[in-house]
Specification:
The protein is built from 13 helices and seven strands. It has about 400 residues and is of the alpha+beta class. The chain has two domains: about 220 residues, Up-down Bundle (Rhopdopsin 7-helix transmembrane proteins); about 160 residues, Alpha-Beta Plaits (2-Layer Sandwich), CATH 3.30.70. The strands form two sheets. The chain has a five-stranded mixed beta sheet with strand order 2-3-1-6-7, sandwiched between helices. Helix 2 runs antiparallel to helix 3 and helix 3 runs antiparallel to helix 4. It is elongated and about 90 Å long. The termini are far apart. The protein binds guanosine-5'-triphosphate. Guanosine-5'-triphosphate binds next to strand 1, helix 9 and helix 10. It holds the Pfam family GGDEF. It comes from Comamonas guangdongensis. Keywords: Membrane, Nucleotidyltransferase, Transferase, Transmembrane, Transmembrane helix. This is diguanylate cyclase.
Length: about 400
Amino acid sequence: MVATVLVGMLCAHLLCFSVMFLLISKRLQGKKMGMDFFAMGNLLLGLAYVLQLLEGGPAWSLMSVVNHTLTLASPVAYWLGAMRFFGQPVPLLRPLLALAVAYSVAQVLVQWSLGPVARYAMLSGMSALLFLIMAITVIYGVRTFAKDLHGEMVFFAVLISGICVLNALKFMKLLEGGLDALQMDRNFQLVFYIYMSFLATVLPPSIVWLILRRLTDELRGIAARAPMTQLLNRRGLKETLQLCFNARKTEAAYLLMLDVDHFKRINDTYGHQIGDAVLCHVAEVLRATARRGDLVSRLGGEEFVVICLDTDTQGVLHLAERLRLAVEKQALRISDSDQSLHCTVTIGVSQSFANKSALEDAMQQADTALYRGKASGRNRVELFQPADSHHPVQSMSSSTRQISPMI
Ligand SMILES: Nc1nc2c(ncn2[C@@H]2O[C@H](COP(=O)(O)OP(=O)(O)OP(=O)(O)O)[C@@H](O)[C@H]2O)c(=O)[nH]1
């Protein structure tokens, strides 16, 4: 009786969460992250338990063959769903149909040649094997494809190992005690159903949590980047810098402010579309030339900021010169024409700073040095000098800046 109630509740859980997964997958539209596959996994397992309730006990019937096939197909659907979640474009229906046909034929052959115990043992053995492979893959994922989901993956590995062990025990009990081991109210079967009910309650919210994490990470990524260049924006720069200082990855940082020279002329001569292409080109050159770990951002207009971590004054001046040279040397080919467009940048470099609250000061310093560079002829690197604070270089509006030909 207790076991029947447990299995009944298990069915209700599985089928309700199947509908919920389906609704979420519809809501996610194009990028379903495997939710439709998880819905299918829950549906197959839910139907398998419905058939088990209808059967009552071990029997050789079409219903039993279908029940076993559905039971084995559901972890395969979860498995494929997990692959989808991690971005693999795997199909669902064809593998499931192939499995259903192959496993149904295998059941008939095993029942006919080895008897009913062997057929039930085959289901437990195959399930244990599937869950073992799943647990190993999840543990492998902690170190490779799912590094960012470390805690969640360990949690899944523990849960999957539990069901793997229970299926292995069932396999052995069947070999030792025959079909009697499957009586629903036996202690082992009760433990089995309690664990399955626990999984059916805990796993779906955990999967929804994974989806939520992916979505919020994506939203945070979108909010932290400028759409045109895909570089960090001001908000993204501040957040990433804070993370670097929090993780104590860096003791001190330098801020480089880069401004495209005579950018207004580029816009006026070639139009805003080419102006935008120049900004994307400069962004790409900066991204490719900066060191791994340096933070490259566009704050707006034709101004870029690079934050260099783990270096000293000599190192940052060297890097700034490398960036300046890279922009000067790499021309942008204008599409639909043989022309290529050269541009240059002027770079102001701040003094070193060691926490996020000093960021605004560092920007001010780099800005002051940048304007000194503009006043001194552009296409150059200028380091902020403490004396600049006493005799600040006047910020020049575009109308008072010296304009020299550059294209
Ligand atoms: N195409 C394009 N133009 C932009 C964008 N943001 C700002 N601008 C233009 O960039 C130009 C900046 O010009 P100025 O600030 O006068 O500076 P400049 O011509 O680069 O001269 P210097 O900085 O003194 O060398 C302005 O004409 C802005 O309209 C953008 O996203 N795309």
